[in-house]
Amino acid sequence: MKVVLVSSEVAPFSKTGGLGDVCGALAAALARRGHTVVTVSPRYGPVDAMAVGAEDTGVTVDLPGAGTRHRVRYLRVVSEDGVHHLLIEHPMFDRDGIYGDANGTFGDNHLRFSLLGRAAIEAAHLVPVRGEPLGEDVVFHAHDWQGALVPLLLEAAYRPMNQFVTTPSVLTVHNLRHQGHFAGRMFADLDLPPRWFAPWALEYYSDLNLLKGGLHHKDQITTVSPTYAAEIRTQIGGFGLDGVLRSRQDVLTGILNGIDAQIWNPATDPLLPANYDANDLTGKKTCKAALQTELGLSVDAATPLIGSVGRLDPQKGTGLLIESIPWLVEKQDAQVVVLGDAPAEFRRYEERLRQFEQRYPRHVRAWMGFSEAQAHQIEAGADLYAMPSRFEPCGLNQMYSMRYGTPPVVRAVGGLADSVQPALGDCSAGTGWVFHLYDGHHLRDALYQALSCWRDRPEAFRAIQGRGMAVDWSWDAVVPAYEAIYERARAARGEAGA
Ligand code: ADP
Ligand code: GLC
Fold it and tell me: In this structure, is residue 272 part of a structural domain?
């Protein structure tokens, strides 16, 4: 098959969270299975085209938007796996941030990602891949609200011109909280016929909602775990789009993400001070001591160290974890390290973490910022990993932590419920600890169970680590599920076009 993957983030070129990881790794895994894979994402300001080995394809296209035309240029990087990564260049992407900068979210994101969608569709006609353009026998796989215009544009702007009539599209929802919500008047900038600003398409109570427009298209919808696929059809999990998703439930499938098992492999990870595997965890002890030293905490193998990596955001349950710190330090003599960065509106988390750092200098460290190396060192050096999310479409860090022999303590939502098997009271089964109610007492109870097992039942703890390390989280195991979705979309579209 020929797959065109459209996303605002594709690692290693751009990443603010799991979206970039997933798109980069899924593309590579599809290519390893023999598919022709093209990704289309913007080249943002901080990405040096030369440094990432990009060549100019020489192809440009003029795309409509906001009453004028915008010239977009396609750069290309061919990865070792054979994926053709197209990076599109336009002054609107040539800024320091992906979605915003220190002054806040960019005001023209609707237009920026409309250009991305149009550029991705045009790429199939214009950009040679191994000698010739892909043509219309492709599957467009768009991601989140930034890609959501692809299915809608196909329907609204191309099929009426007799183009892409039998070309299917798949839309993957990574996080329903982010919908691409704008004032209704901004619809005019998209350069679409006015009838598409309607409740069955892009209108949401007089506003413009790009994700909603994409969800109303005719093909397949996926999300990143089976439990999340059920949650988003409920009023609590649906963020106002549960009705739309219920109406489309016959084409909605939850597929649990994989992880890049080469980058996240404790046996070979070059970012660790020592490597280890499930048969011999000696290197993990070295990683813990190095992490404690680096963090300025007391270096003591007998003091449990709890790690957390991720956006500081109410989604991640950051508040629950922070409120549990005094209990962890004072009652459990545990150490806590948090790596994260907070968007401007959640800076309060950073301030509270700083206060605890000052109060407990031998026990608490907050690493504020974004660092791949530190993320790997925490996954390896911690004894337990905390992820008490309020909601979690999939979550990658709990899978990284299991692979690194660092059992997670998670809330039973979304992909956390689907990936972590609960340890029983006597630690006789499972791969981590799971609690249900979003409440600090419940988190602390789960942490207490985990810490007790770590202290008092080392053999059972070792077995929990072993079970987590043995799970195959690789994308190669996930790809057949996407192939089935692409086939389903093709079959349905073939019938529609016939
Ligand atoms: P989300 O996409 O909701 O942020 P995920 O768990 O799916 O959550 O993915 C987050 C990804 O981003 C992981 O690869 C994680 O290691 C990485 N990440 C998040 N914050 C940081 C940070 N401050 N430093 C390094 N990596 C980070
Ligand atoms: C989103 C979700 C996260 C998921 C990631 C990749 O950012 O918040 O749970 O793992 O997308 O699918």
Answer: no
Is 36 in the same domain as 111? yes
State phi, psi for 122 to the nearest 5 degrees: -65, -30
pLDDT tens, residue by residue, 204-220? 999 999 999 999 877 89
Structural domain count of the chain: 2
* Residue 84 sits in the same domain as residue 137: yes
Cα–Cα dist 469/403, whole Å: 4
Q: Is residue 338 part of a domain?
A: yes
Shared domain for 418 and 450, answered yes or no, is: yes
Q: Are residues 405 and 320 in the same domain?
A: yes
Closest residue CA from atom 2 of ligand 1: 18
**Which one of 98, 145, 173, 175 would you pick to mutate in the ligand 2 pocket, going by the greatest count of ligand atoms within 8 A of its CB?**
175
Mean pLDDT of 378-385: 98
Residue 496: predicted pLDDT? 59
483/452 same-domain check: no
Ligand 1 centre distance from Cα of residue 310 (Å):
5
Distance, in Å, from the CA atom of 88 to the CA atom of 72, rounded to the nearest integer, reads: 6
In angstroms, the Cα distances linking 143 to 223, 247, 273, 295 are: 10, 20, 36, 37
Within a domain: 152: yes
Domain range enclosing 222: 2-258+477-497
Identify whether 268 is part of a domain.
Answer: no
- What is the best residue among 177, 222, 224, 420 to mutate for testing ligand 2's pocket, by most ligand atoms within 8 Å of CB? 224
> Are 44 and 138 within one domain?
yes
CATH number reported for the structural domain that contains residue 184 in this entry: 3.40.50.2000
Q: Convert the pLDDT of each residue in 397-420 to its tens digit.
A: 999 999 999 999 999 999 999 999
Nearest CA to ligand 2 atom 11: 174
pTM, entire model: 0.96
Question: Which residue among 308, 311, 416 is best mutated to probe the pocket of ligand 1, counting the most ligand atoms within 8 A of its Cβ?
Answer: 311
Give yes or no: residues 449 and 484 share one domain: no
Sign of the alpha-carbon dihedral angle for 199, 205, 207, 209 = negative
365, 325 Cβ separation under 8 angstroms: no
Question: 310 and 199, same structural domain?
Answer: no
377 CB near ligand 1 (under 6 Å): no
